[in-house]
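OP here, attaching both records as promised.
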Amino acid sequence: MGASKIKTKSPVIQVHFSDTLTKHRIVQGLFDADIQADETVQIEQTTLLLYDTSQEAVAFNTLVVDQNRGLIATQKTTRQLIARLQDTSLGTIREARIYRNMLHIANGVVPLVYGRSLFIPMASPFRGNCDWINGRHIHTIRDLDKATELLWDKGIKAQVFDYHDFETKIHDAVLICQYSIQILKEMYESGYLHEADNEILGRYNNCDCPNHRRLAQAEPLVPAYQAAQLEVFLSCAFPKSEYDSVDYTDRVAAFHTNLRKKSRC
């Protein structure tokens, strides 16, 4: 399939496919009329599936399946898209790998989790590109011979090649989610998040240094934490050439916007 057959993005997409999505059918060009090219695409909570097409005879490296935006083709690889998702999330694959080791999970599949957000790879994400599934929106799972068929709302159906039992993947990923949430709760409830109340340590709680003044201004620290986390954790999993630089000012603005949206809920 040539690049000329792929449309550029449009603001409104009618998301419905009469046939089941498979890589073979995508390569055959059966979904050309539904595919849009968009190099600015990012993974969102409405993303259902990332198809790794980097080894297929098509003009793009990843096909993003989104419940609102439809089929989106991009030259970015699944590793690059997942790396960017980690850049804008508090969860990292490296942390999930720590939880997996705690739980003695044998398979090499390491999901990207934070809270109830859950993206599951179909193979080890440390070994290259692979398909990724957002676990939040799956409606029905059907086991096939060497594949798993997934059904979502709006009549979207897709098949992914699966080395391991998919329900085991979901079980393990949910377990990792639960462990990460429990650890956060324990850290808070243990008292380790309380301010120091002895004289020696307490005198530093409210000093007048620039960083303490910043803290006193109640400026959200999550964007800065994300940037620092990216430098420490993400570079261990992916080379820097595989993810885009992010403007810190834009990230802070986006975080404030998200806070305002939540406050209106």
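Record two, same layout:
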Amino acid sequence: MSVLQVFVLLLAMSVAVNFGCVAAFITLRTGVGWARAVLTGGGATGATLVIFFSAVAAYNG
């Protein structure tokens, strides 16, 4: 992997984790418990990474 590819992967991970944290904090503010907020944040992080990796696969395919 080139240096640029590593930086793009790190940027994608950072964006995904930020989306997950925002989703978890918004879920917490609605009054549900911690467990549901963590699951929501994890789902948002996973969905963001799936979209990113699907775009990479479509571009390279």
